[in-house]
Amino acid sequence: MSDQARTANTQSLQKSPINTTDLSGAQLPRDLFEEFIERTQEESELLDMVRVEPLARKEMAKPKIGVPELSGGTRAEDGSRPETSSATSGAVEFNVTGQYYYIKYDLKEDAVEDTMSDEQVANLILSHFERAWANDVQNLAINAGRTGSSLPASLNDKFDGWIAIAEGNDTASDRIGIDADGETVDTMPTYIHTDTGDAAGTAQPVNTDLFNSMIQTVPERFRDEDEQVIMLSKSQLQAYHSGLTERNDGLGVVVLQGDSDVTPFGYDIVGVSYWPDDIAMLINPDQLAFGPYEAMEITQTTDSDKTMDEALHSRTLLEGQFDFQIEELQSGALATNIQAP
Fold first, then answer.
1. Beta strands 268-272 and 280-283, pairing class
2. Domain housing 175
3. 189-219 pLDDT, tens digit each
4. Total structural domains within the chain
5. Does residue 4 belong to any structural domain of this protein?
6. Could you tell me the CATH number of the domain that includes residue 181?
7. Is residue 11 in some structural domain?
8. What's the pTM?
9. What angle do helix axes 30-43 and 118-143 make, rounded to 10 degrees?
């Protein structure tokens, strides 16, 4: 899945040296923007899996044609066809208006060697931004706006990540259902992992019941062990693997020795940094979309009181706008109330 997403997201870019003159303008040139986004994907395990859709405008809608369980009908030999299809149309909305995010980087004079060229200094600055931007975007993509998020309110109020959208926080999109009546949907199908099956019960650990129930929660038409993955926190994945090593069979041995991936019911499990311990998601990563607005800005100051007082080579500011979306809510499953590892 990761290889397919990378093929779809990357372009044939020449990795020519980046000069400091490229950092002097307010907006990144198109080729540098594309290269920057590609490199941030390489820095993030999650962005490397999902679909990246650069946005040419601040508000963009992705049209959707709803296809319910049955779209057609029948008629008598001499009868009419009053309705040929029950498919309806809708849209998934990207909107970055007012969602500015910036990172500031102060480069110390003593960090720059006298022998470094302008291109090397520029690449040093951009490599920092690539790592920092990938790290922050991954955190926001997972936690922004979700129930129980520990992010600052200023971020939760500006962004809705993929878990928040699965919980129903996307009010702008006109989403189409897939059941027989074709009604609209607001949330991803959800399984509550407690002993009673509701929020009042006792949370249960990551186990086979969790994986089976998540798979059963996804409508059959979307189940595909070759495309979908189970996402959970790295701590939960480690705890699950540790529990498997206690088994007195071949599976316990291969897990302990790291000789084989564990794929319950044929589905891959992925541990993701910043993923909450009490939530899991079963999804085709290509359904998760990250939309960066193409007008990303970078500003560099080399001559100011701040740079003089703190012995800085330069102060550089990177600012951009982006949004997150899930293509088809009903193509996955969200699991909640998972016991802490």
1. unpaired
2. 18-67+86-336
3. 999 999 999 999 999 999 999 999 999 999 8
4. 1
5. no
6. 3.90.1690
7. no
8. 0.84
9. 60
